[in-house]
Specification:
alpha/beta; Rossmann fold; ProC C-terminal domain-like fold; eight-stranded mixed sheet; two-stranded parallel sheet; pyrroline-5-carboxylate reductase activity; oxidoreductase; Pyrroline-5-carboxylate reductase; NADP; 6-PGluconate_DH-like_C_sf
């Protein structure tokens, strides 16, 4: 099914902005008016150039932001949180009146952006699997946004995965699950790989065993019509080896550990949102 979007400007096309840019270049996505991207350096701008993509370096072209924003209906802010206020001061006069501004900067509130621009503003929290089209993005609409504006931004992020719409006050909680979640998975893979090596497997074999097991289990879950608890039960034969291993994991109270980990992440998210508090 084809997706039609108006002209998009990605201001700060770093790793996440670049991932979304790649999603926009999928064959089934049509971006009327083209994709524009800006970065500070030519080194970062050059690799993004492709048919339908205008990629500019601000250090080489003083008019780069104006060129990228001219006619852009969706403006994605991909700069680091600390750079958002200064960027908004720069681009506010350059935004088209009907441009929808979308920030993916962690901790920067919609109200902070709305105080600097007169446009519709939404906030989004994508995660790193967006790089391979398997992302999860939380989208929160500001008070100026219509249902049509939100649908437009949803369509943008669906080019790189799934989208969850939620109130802004839930964005930080979402970030502790889907935002930080890939790191939790990678951490578990690291630890299980070390365990495989402790059992005598060489590094390459240990990685193969663990990474392919995680990949296979995830794909089995995606293809299944039952929940993960049932899939776990099917692997866990009564009085077998897996049952004994699961008992050890249950004794470790992983629910408590994950509750504590996400609580710590949530506290830090609040600190980022209120740096002077």
């Amino acid at each position: 099914m084809s997706v039609n979007l108006p002209a998009v400007a990605v201001i700060g096309a770093g790793s996440m902005g670049g991932a979304i840019l790649q999603g926009l270049r999928r064959p089934e996505v049509v971006v009327e008016g083209g994709i524009r991207a800006t970065n500070r350096t030519e080194e970062k701008a050059a690799p993004l150039r492709a048919p339908g993509v205008l990629s500019l370096a601000t250090e080489a072209d003083a008019q780069a932001q104006a060129t990228a924003l001219r006619g852009a209906r969706i403006v994605l802010l991909g700069v680091k949180p600390v750079g958002v206020p200064g960027l908004l001061e720069e681009i506010a006069p350059l935004l088209e009146p009907d441009a929808v501004v979308v920030s993916i900067a962690a901790g920067v509130r919609i109200a902070t952006i709305e105080a600097r621009v007169s446009n519709v503003v939404l906030r989004a929290m994508p995660n790193t699997p967006s790089l391979v089209g398997r992302g999860v993005t939380g989208v929160a609409a500001g008070p100026r946004a219509s249902r049509e504006d939100t649908a437009l931004v949803r369509a943008l992020f669906e080019t790189v995965g799934s989208v969850v719409e939620l109130p802004e006050e839930r964005i930080d909680a979402l970030s502790t699950i889907s935002g930080s979640g890939p790191a939790y998975v990678f951490f578990l893979i690291e630890r299980l790989t070390e365990t495989a090596q402790h059992l005598g497997f060489d590094g390459a074999t240990a990685r193969l065993l663990v990474e392919e097991t995680f990949r296979g289990a995830s794909e089995l879950l995606a293809a299944s019509d039952v929940d993960p608890a049932e899939l776990r039960r099917r692997v866990t034969s009564p009085h077998g080896t897996t049952e004994r291993a699961i008992a050890v994991l249950e004794d470790a109270d992983l629910t408590r550990v994950f509750d504590a980990a996400t609580a710590a992440a949530l506290v830090r998210a609040h600190e980022l949102a209120n740096p002077t508090a």
